[in-house]
Amino acid sequence: MTDGWNWRRPSGPAAPGAPDPASPWWSDAPADPWRDPYAPAAVHIGTAPTGEVPQPEVVPDPDAPRRGLGPILAICLVTALLAGGLGGTLGFVFAVRGGYATNGGTQIGATAQPVPESMQRAPETLAGVAERVLPSVVTVRVTGAIGSGFVVSEDGYVITNDHVVEGANDTMSVAFSDGSTASAEVVGRDPESDIAVIKVAKSGLAPVALGDSDAIAVGDPVLAFGSPLALVNTVTSGIVSALDRPIEAGEAGGATRYYAAIQTDAAVNQGNSGGPLVNAAGQVIGVNSVIRSVGGTDTEAGNIGLAFAIPINQAKRVAQDIIDTGKARRTVIGAEVVTGETAGGARLRSVEPAGPAASAGLKSGDVLTKIDGHVLEDGTDLIALVRKYAPGATVPVEYRRGTKSASASVTLAADTN
């Protein structure tokens, strides 16, 4: 085959219509009306549009070895599988993040992500303290009443208020934060301190950690636990509002209770009585006991940010006496005081011979103005603050005798009654 650059006309005429064996063209070329078999072959190159460069047509080599279809099919299959998996994954992610469930329904809210470690409830946070203390708090159910308490030993001893278990009978029971219940019986009561101990018919309990109520300060954060208005497993927060607040409480015809209370603004209501007041370390520092309210009756009383707790040092001492002996010792100064008068202190009506006050040189008519640094306004303040200390404690006092002021040290004693 030639491109015509050195073409020569063949010699000798060919018969019309007969194929020329020397012709490079197809056998029916003589019958092609548009083709002169004797015209030289030429390559025609058309004019390319301006700016475009013609590209030669690639002609496959007929002698090149052919590739099998197996590798191609394998590549196609792998590509299809990868594309399908990737597409399904992206579709699920976009559907979830876009707020739609994969079944076509609407998903409310974004998908929850794992909580970062920095946001988890650490033991020292209020949430961590609540989680740790709640299993030790109980709801005390007495016929016609409900109160709170907290476990202080693995074998079932529980501290609560005396007024919670007053009138209790065989129907008394307690409920735990997990919903389980158990029967309980009264071990002992001390109406004047408003502390009682009951024993739960269940062992292996988790006791609370007891703190030091003498180590707290005004402004310290606190949590109050209990069942206010029968709402079990309630936790409220606040701060220590005041310390050694003298409290005189009690019902008509019943015992009068005196104690130097921890005042808090944590929300406390009926049903919180007997529950623990806990510091930021998860240690019990007080027993929630009474509230101050503007309500006219007990049924109308409600939280106004004035709640009072018995210091745990006093409650622990009384509870230990009850567990050991069945009866609590009462701390006394050995003198009778005048109450209900404004004398700028606690006036001694009488002094017991050989009692603590007499041994310290105090006499009838003396007006005590301070005890252990606490200012006394009247006789009630003296009774409440004396009950704070354990029998045998020695406390400094300041007093006024006539126009003269003096001081003394008094070693308090336990009541012999």
Q: Short description, anyone?
A:
It contains 6 helices and 21 strands. The chain has helices spanning 70-97, 126-133, 162-165, 312-325, 356-359, 379-388, and strands at residues 137-142, 145-151, 157-161, 173-176, 181-190, 195-200, 209-210, 221-226, 234-249, 257-264, 276-279, 283-291, 307-311, 331-332, 335-337, 346-351, 367-371, 374-375, 394-401, 404-411, 413-414.
Estimate the mean pLDDT confidence: 82
The first-level CATH class of the largest domain is given as: Mainly Beta
> What is the correct CATH architecture of the largest domain?
Beta Barrel
Proportion of strand residues: 25-35%
Oligomeric form of this entry?
A: single chain
State the CATH topology of the largest domain.
Thrombin, subunit H
Structural class: alpha+beta
Name the strands of the widest sheet in spatial order: 1-2-3-6-5-4
List low-pLDDT spans: 1-7
Distance between the termini: 141 Å
Biggest sheet details: 6 strands, antiparallel, barrel
Task: Provide the gyration radius in Å.
Answer: 49 Å
Order of helices and strands: HHEEEHEEEEEEEEEEHEEEHEEHEEE
Number of helices: 6
Dominant shape: elongated
Organism: Actinoplanes missouriensis (strain ATCC 14538 / DSM 43046 / CBS 188.64 / JCM 3121 / NBRC 102363 / NCIMB 12654 / NRRL B-3342 / UNCC 431)
GO molecular function: serine-type endopeptidase activity
InterPro entries: PDZ (IPR001478), PDZ_sf (IPR036034), Peptidase_S1_PA (IPR009003), Peptidase_S1_PA_chymotrypsin (IPR043504), Peptidase_S1C (IPR001940)
Pfam families: PDZ_2 (PF13180), Trypsin_2 (PF13365)
